[in-house]
Specification:
The protein has about 90 residues and is mostly helical. It has one domain (about 1-85). Helices cover about 90% and strands about 0% of the residues. Helix 2 (about 30-55) runs antiparallel to helix 3.
Length: about 90
Amino acid sequence: MVQGLLILTAVLTVVLIFNFFAIRLHKIPAHKGKKLRKIFLIVYGISMISVGVAFIFLEENAILGWCYILIGIGFPMANGIASRNKNL
């Protein structure tokens, strides 16, 4: 019972922290938001690629590892393509 309450408290705290930062991000200017989005997607892509490489080399699941790598490459590429299309 106590462990469940501790887990609930931890999850709610993390959600409140994410909510606080999400509200802060909505109040920043548009050009800074684009820059932060670009940085976030690059970091997210690198983390997805590293998880995929770990899956492949630890021989957990090679197919899932390649899927993670493709998704990790796809996020920054999709952001770049979308930003180029908006400028046209």
